[in-house]
Structures are given as structure tokens and as C-alpha cells.
Amino acid sequence: MLLKHLYIMSLEYPGSGCAVWFGGEELRDLRCYISGFLSGMSLGNLSTEDDDAFFNWLKNNGYFPCDGWDRFIVDKTGDGETAYLKFFEILNKYLFEQQPSWLVTFNMEPQPSPLGERRSKDIRNVVHIEKLKQLNERRW
């Protein structure tokens, strides 16, 4: 649930514009947001299995050293804005490797903005749509 939420937010506010949702330009704000989101899911007895798989993938691919994924990304990129871009690049890499069913389904037809039509009638990323079409030709 978290990954879908983050993915949709990245489409609404591409690049570092997502900082609007998290309260600041520092990646630790995103870390706190994620921690709170996962805590809320846990309190609501909602499954975090898909999200846990992402964090395991981060560890297995060297993106999650002992001091945490957010510190690692900031150290590699040097600033908050670039760190946001790097985080969503990593998230998209994971999503396209794993191709959760919700990602494929989401990109099969137009998706209006959750914020209302004033934002966009279709928030999908054209590059993502084409990539998923190529990877899943039989489904489309």
C-alpha cells in the first residue's frame, strides 16, 4: 500500500516536488513520513508485506546500509532535492523489476488525479506506460 501511495505521489509531483507532501526538502522528512505511514498500517492491522519486500530489496541491492537508506542517498547525492530524485529513481527501478499487479493495472488505463481534475485527467507517466506495455504485451 505504501509503495502505491508513494508512486502516485511521485506522479502528482514529479521530481523533488514531492517534498510538498512530506513537509520539507530533507529526505529525513520522507523517512519520517514512511515510518508514520507504516506505523499507521501496523496499528490498523494492514499488511505491509509488499512494503517489507521493498525494504529487503533495498538491503539486498546495497541501498540500505546500517545508517539507513535516507542517509545513504543523501551522502551519495549531496542535497535534499537530488536525494528525492534518487529515491524515486530507486523506487521505480524496484517497481519495474518486480512489477506488482497494481502497477500494471494502474498503468493500463487513464488515472485521474486523486487531487481532482484541476491537477490532471491522467497522471500516468508515458514512459512507464510504454515500458510496462513492452514487458507485459499479453496483458494489454
Explain the overall architecture.
63% of the residues lie in helices and 0% in strands. With 140 residues, it is mostly helical. It has one domain (2-135). The protein is globular. The chain starts with a helix and ends in a 5-residue tail after the last helix.
SSE inventory with pairings:
Blueprint: H1 2-12, H2 19-22, H3 27-43, H4 49-60, H5 69-77, H6 80-98, H7 101-106, H8 126-135
Helix pairs in contact: 3-5, 5-6
- The whole-angstrom Rg is 15 Å
Strand percentage: under 5%
Alpha-beta content class? mainly alpha
What gross morphology would you assign?
A: globular
Order of helices and strands: HHHHHHHH
Mean pLDDT: 82
Spans of at least 5 consecutive residues whose pLDDT stays below 50 are none
Q: How many H/I helices?
A: 8
Could you give the distance between the termini? 24 Å
Bin the helical content: 55-70%
Summarize the structure.
This protein is an all-alpha fold.
